[in-house]
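Duplicate of earlier report; DUF2007 domain-containing protein input re-posted below.
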Amino acid sequence: MSENQVVVATFAGEIEAELAKGSLEAAGIEATIAKDDCGGMRPELQFSGGVSLLVHQNVAEEARRILTTPSEPAP
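Output:
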């Protein structure tokens, strides 16, 4: 983790984290996923610490707002 990155959300699994990352990237916010699963060899370890979603500290507030705002249903 870069010293300028902060955790904006933690998820139980990688799929949820990837979906949230996609929402942020669609809004123009670069995001990184961090997980401790021994390089994919021990995926069950994700459940102990979760999967973290990180962004640059300058956009953390905006990222949290995007992640907590309900999305509009498609027409």
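The chain is about 35% helix and 25% strand.

Merging into the original ticket.
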